[in-house]
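R.M. (postdoc): so does anyone remember the format we settled on? I'll just put the C-alpha cells first.
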C-alpha cells in the first residue's frame, strides 16, 4: 500500500472526534426519516404538476434539438445519447434500488442465461483488520473510477423510510433486521410484499465522489451540460456496481446505491468529503459542487471518517451567487431554516430550503437538468495554485475576506455561461 494512503487512514483514526452531519445541521428531535416518494425525482410518477413538467421537458428538448440551437445541436444530442448508454446497457437506475445492475444480491444470482455467467462461488471471507480493509477498498474504488473515497457509519436517519417502485407507482418500507419481525434476514433482501430489509450488521458506508467535467458544466443549462452530468452517472453505474461486487467476492454483503436507499449528501458529509451549500449541493474541497455522489452500504468493518467544516456555510452566508443567478428563484437568498418549502425535503434539518418544484419546472423550460447553480458557484474551480490559495482563505471563516473573494470572483468573470464551442474545442 502506498505510504500516502497509509497516512490518510492514520490521520482519520487520529482525528475522529465523533462529529456527524446530524450535529452540524442541528437535526431536531421531531425529524423523521424521509420517504423517497417525496423526492423530486419520484414525484412525476404520482404528482400531476410534476408529471406535466416532465412531459413539457421532453417536448421542449425535442423542439430545441430540431431548431439546432447552440448547445442543442446534433453533436450535443449524440453526446447525450452516448453518456446514457452504459446505464441503459446494464440496467442501472440511479433512483430505483435493487434493480438489475444495482442488485442487492451478487450479480451472478440474477435470472440470466447461466451460460453467460460465472456461477456464484463463495471461496471464503476476507480476514483483515479495519485499517487494512479501508486501504484495500480505497485502492479498488479508485481503480474502478472513483475520484474521492470516504467512509462513515450508516446513520439510519438518512436511510429512506420507504423506497419508491416505478412499476407499481407505490412506496414500500425499508426495515432493519433488528426490528421486530425481520430478525431472520442476514442478507439484504426484498420480500414478496416489496418491503426491503437491511441486515443490522450492514452499518458501514463507502461514499464515492465522481467529478463532472468543468468545461461541460460551464455550458449550463444546455444539453451539453446534461450529457456531462449523465457521463458522471454512467461512471457511477460502473464504479459502484463493480465495488459492490468486489466486496461480495470478499465474502461480505454490499448494497450499491446512487440516489436510492439513502440520502447521499449527509452520508458524504459524515465521511468528511464536504459540506452542504446554499444550492442544496455537496460542496467538496476539490471539486466544489461539480460532482455526483454514490455509495456502497456493507458489513465489511472499516475505519470511519468524520464530518469536517472548512468554511462553506460561512462563505455561502456571504455569497448568494447561486440564488441570484437561479432563473427560477428556487434557491433562497435568506437564512437557513428547519422547515422545507413543501414535501420535497425532510423537516427538522437546518439548511437553505430549496423550492424544488420551481427548479424542476425550469428544467421543463430548457429541456435539461439546468446546472446553473453549479456553474455559478465560486467553489466550482479546477485545481490550480491560485484556486487552492482561495480555498485556504475560505477556511479562515472571515466574513470580510469572503466578501472580497466573492467580488473578485465576479470581476474575473468566473461562473459565466460559456459557448459550447469552449467545450468541444478545449
Amino acid at each position: 500500500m502506498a505510504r500516502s494512503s497509509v497516512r490518510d487512514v492514520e490521520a482519520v483514526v487520529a482525528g475522529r472526534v465523533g462529529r456527524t452531519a446530524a450535529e452540524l445541521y442541528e437535526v431536531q428531535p421531531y425529524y423523521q426519516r424521509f420517504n423517497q416518494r417525496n423526492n423530486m425525482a419520484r414525484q412525476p410518477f404520482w404528482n400531476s404538476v410534476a408529471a406535466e413538467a416532465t412531459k413539457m421537458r421532453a417536448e421542449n428538448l425535442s423542439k430545441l434539438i430540431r431548431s439546432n440551437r447552440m448547445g442543442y445541436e446534433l453533436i450535443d444530442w449524440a453526446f447525450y445519447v452516448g453518456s446514457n448508454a452504459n446505464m441503459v446497457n446494464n440496467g442501472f437506475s440511479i433512483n430505483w434500488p435493487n434493480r438489475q445492475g444495482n442488485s442487492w444480491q451478487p450479480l451472478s444470482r440474477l435470472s440470466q442465461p447461466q451460460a453467460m455467467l460465472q456461477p456464484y462461488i463463495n471461496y471464503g471471507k476476507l480476514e483483515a483488520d479495519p485499517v487494512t480493509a479501508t486501504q484495500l477498498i480505497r485502492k479498488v474504488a479508485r481503480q474502478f473510477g472513483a475520484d474521492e473515497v470516504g467512509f462513515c457509519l450508516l446513520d439510519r436517519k438518512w436511510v429512506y423510510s420507504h423506497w419508491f417502485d416505478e412499476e407499481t407507482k407505490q412506496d414500500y418500507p425499508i426495515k432493519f433486521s433488528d426490528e421486530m419481525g425481520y430478525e431472520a434476514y442476514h442478507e439484504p433482501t426484498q420480500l414478496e410484499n416489496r418491503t426491503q430489509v437491511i441486515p443490522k450488521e450492514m452499518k458501514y458506508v463507502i461514499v464515492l465522489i465522481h467529478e463532472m467535467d468543468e468545461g461541460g458544466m460551464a455550458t449550463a443549462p444546455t444539453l451539453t451540460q446534461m450529457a456531462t452530468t449523465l457521463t458522471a452517472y454512467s461512471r457511477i453505474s460502473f464504479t459502484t456496481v463493480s465495488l459492490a461486487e468486489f466486496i461480495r467476492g470478499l465474502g461480505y454483503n454490499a448494497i450499491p446505491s446512487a440516489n436510492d436507499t439513502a440520502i447521499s449528501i449527509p452520508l458524504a458529509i459524515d465521511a468528511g468529503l464536504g459540506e452542504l451549500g446554499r444550492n442544496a449541493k455537496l460542496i467538496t474541497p476539490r471539486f466544489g459542487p461539480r460532482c455526483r455522489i454514490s455509495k456502497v452500504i456493507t458489513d465489511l468493518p472499516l475505519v470511519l471518517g468524520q464530518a469536517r467544516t472548512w468554511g462553506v456555510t460561512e462563505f455561502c452566508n456571504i455569497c448568494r451567487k447561486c440564488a441570484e443567478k437561479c432563473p427560477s428563484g428556487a434557491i433562497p437568498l435568506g437564512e437557513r431554516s428547519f422547515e422545507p418549502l413543501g414535501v420535497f425535503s425532510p423537516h427538522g434539518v437546518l439548511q437553505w430550503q430549496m423550492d424544488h418544484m420551481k427548479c424542476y419546472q425550469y428544467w421543463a423550460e430548457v429541456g435539461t437538468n439546468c446546472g446553473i447553480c453549479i456553474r455559478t458557484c465560486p467553489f466550482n474551480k479546477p485545481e490550480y495554485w491560485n484556486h487552492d490559495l482561495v480555498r485556504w482563505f475560505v477556511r479562515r471563516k472571515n466574513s470580510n475576506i469572503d466578501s472580497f473573494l466573492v467580488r473578485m470572483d465576479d470581476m474575473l468573470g468566473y461562473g459565466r455561461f460559456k459557448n459550447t464551442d469552449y467545450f468541444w474545442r478545449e
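R.M.: ...and that's the designed sequence above, right after the C-alpha cells. Also worth knowing: Residues 3-425 form one domain. The longest helix spans residues 223-249.
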